[in-house]
Design goal:
disordered N terminus, two-stranded antiparallel sheet, mainly beta, single chain, Porin, 16-stranded antiparallel β-barrel
Length: about 450
């Protein structure tokens, strides 16, 4: 529980309400109600005196903006503590999960208790010619250890610089995003922007799984992560973009190497990779994107291998009174310069009922060729195996006070594996997680 209290200690100072003077000239006022409702308000529709409450990147709703420069449906809930501090509009959002993890089958590994957590700090203000935005995202996940936590069929990155992480999910870095952006209106319906981060997120793939409303309550990382959104922590990125009404076209140059086992460090490198993404939000309830990227040497253990990645995704969000339902479908294709091409498909959904109940699920189908990366003499090494996974879970938020809520939840995952893997993994292995969550609402 030390991690939970430490995250809370980081977040707590931002919950202090600012007072407004009697003349009404003070710009400091809290956007969050003292008793927050389940569905936070659309901040872009609020009258904030001389402040223009539009998005960080253009004239769109603030609710539309998700991780990095990605978009989500405008009707998506925008949780967090929002307030005015002089000329600045600030936002704090975060969560901390204390998790007990049990993975089944012969390769399930040891059971483990750990914390998954994240805090986001954002600020923006209008300048004479445009809007300046500051974004940061931090995590204490490095405290769980370099090898992360057990998760069947999860692959990618390394914990010691010598062996691949197989059947384990790596922890996120202490610094996941430190970025600045500046947008300039071109017309009433369009804008141009520049985004630079060290670290940051390039224009590639859907919103990162930790930020998608459809997936953020599932404490288990998708096994399709390295086909869709693994570039969300990139040690150096510059993105240029143009927004016109419901369309956004953007391109990035970035450092392709994924973070290594030194999770407390920022390790910048050359901008050796590039991507382009087209996003279209046809209505307030829908967001679609298609993207392509060339990633230079993403894996430290395969420095001579580059990857071309193509992704497409659709996210739908619907509000029913105090209830919210979001679903994301995504496809990713990796084509390495050496080795086998592979595909991944994800379908995930989360339904929040009232203020206390959240139901979530995720179905995945992915080609894995790294399951025997650490046993190169195995006859199965280097082969592609199509893995299916289905996860379902539930969270009950039993306590809420001010801007914080606490819940208890659990999930169960079952896998479909080819017969060639049953000796190593068992037939249709099952895993589970139970957890306690503290979250800013």
């Amino acid at each position: 529980m030390k991690l939970v209290w430490l995250i809370s200690a980081i977040l707590l100072p931002h919950a202090v309400m600012a007072e407004t003077d009697s003349a009404g000239d003070t710009a400091q006022e809290t956007l969050s109600a003292s008793e927050p409702s389940h569905m936070p308000p659309d901040l872009s529709t609020m009258d904030m005196s001389r402040h223009t409450m539009h998005g960080m990147f253009g004239p769109n709703s603030m609710n539309r903006e998700a991780s990095g420069t990605s978009w989500q449906p405008d009707s998506s809930p925008q949780e967090g503590i929002h307030q005015m501090d002089g000329e600045w509009m600030t936002m704090v959002h975060g969560f901390a999960d204390l998790i007990y993890d049990g993975q089944g089958g012969p390769r399930g590994g040891e059971n483990k208790t750990f914390s998954s957590n994240m805090v986001m700090l954002m600020a923006q203000r209008d300048l004479e010619f445009g809007t300046l935005g500051l974004r940061s995202m931090l995590s204490l996940e490095p405290l769980m250890g370099k090898s992360g936590y057990p998760e069947l069929f999860q692959t990618g990155e390394t914990a010691d610089g010598k062996n691949s992480l197989v059947d384990r999910q790596h922890p996120h870095n202490l610094f996941m995003e430190l970025a600045v952006c500046y947008s300039v209106p071109v017309s009433d319906a369009s804008s141009a922007f520049v985004y630079a981060g060290l670290p940051g997120e390039p224009a590639l793939g859907p919103s990162a799984f930790m930020h998608r409303v459809s997936g953020q309550d599932n404490v288990e990382a998708p096994i399709t992560h390295h086909w869709l959104d693994s570039t969300h922590v990139t040690n150096g990125v510059i993105t240029l973009g143009y927004i016109y009404q419901s369309w956004k076209l953007e391109g990035s140059v970035f450092h392709g190497r994924e973070p290594d086992q030194f999770r407390y460090k920022i390790e910048p490198g050359s901008l050796d990779s590039g991507s382009i993404r087209l996003t279209y939000n046809p209505s307030e309830n829908w967001s679609t994107q298609i993207s392509y990227g060339h990633i230079g040497s993403p894996e430290a253990l395969e420095p001579d291998v580059n990857v071309n990645r193509t992704t497409a995704s659709v996210t739908a969000n619907f509000v029913y009174g105090a209830n919210n339902w979001q679903t994301t479908g995504a496809w990713g294709h990796n084509s390495p310069s050496s080795g086998l091409s592979s595909n991944a498909v994800l379908l995930e959904s989360a339904l929040t009922v009232g203020a206390a109940h959240t139901f979530f699920g995720r179905a995945e189908l992915v080609d894995k060729d790294e399951l025997f990366a650490n046993t190169p003499n195995s006859p199965l090494a280097g082969q592609n195996f199509r893995i299916g996974k289905l996860s379902v879970g539930y969270i009950h938020d039993f306590w809420s006070s001010g801007n914080y809520k606490t819940g208890i939840g659990g999930l169960v995952s079952q896998y479909a594996v080819p017969s060639a893997l049953t000796q190593s993994y068992g037939a249709n292995p099952t895993s589970f997680m139970v957890f306690v969550r503290v979250k800013i609402q």
